[in-house]
Structures are given as structure tokens and as C-alpha cells.
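Predict structure. Input: UPF0102 protein Rhola_00005160, 117 residues.
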Amino acid sequence: MAQNQIVGKYGEDLAEQYLRDRGYQIVDRNWRCASGEIDLVASHHGRYIFVEVKTRNGSGFGHPFEAITAQKVARMRRLVSQWCLANQKSGVDVRLDAIAVLISGGRVAVEHLKQVF
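Output follows.
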């Protein structure tokens, strides 16, 4: 496994635990289809939350949220539709969130932006 994959998995593990600690139930993780991947799908207060997790080791490449482009948002919306179809969820309340995990100087910061897309 490449270094960036290890860092990415670590960030997703932290994001999952962060959500669980706040009462979210994890429904799916790393769901894939031909169009791409959804990092985390959670349920919270009757709503499905689709989460893009961005992890950075150091700030040399900018803040993790800077990697979420308009193109990525459009793909995420398509993926949410495909996930709902594949899981027979219609007419459900959904929200798209982003979680940034920044590892710097031996410290880890987790930031959660709700309804970012």
C-alpha cells in the first residue's frame, strides 16, 4: 500500500470514528461504482449523510478542503444518486458533507463541514 493510501485510510478511519462519537451510524464505507467512490455514508436523525474525506499530511498542498472542486462536487452528486438507486432509497433526505483531516507536526485536526455541496 502506497504512503498516500495509508494516510487516506487513516483519515477515513478518524472521520468514521469522529462521526460515530457524535451519534452518526455508519451505513457504508468506500462504496464504489463505475463513476467513482463515496468515502462514507452515514445516517443521522433520519437523514443520509454522504461524506467526502480529505486527508493531508502537512500543509504543503494546502488545506484539505481546497481539493474539493466544482467537478468533484458534481461527481459526488451523481454518486449519491447512484448509491440511492443501488440501495433502493428513494425520497430520502440527504446531505453532502466534507471532513478534513490535517496531520501536522505530530498533531491531528479533524474539521467537519456540513451541507457543503
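The CA atoms of residues 54 and 67 lie 8 Å apart.
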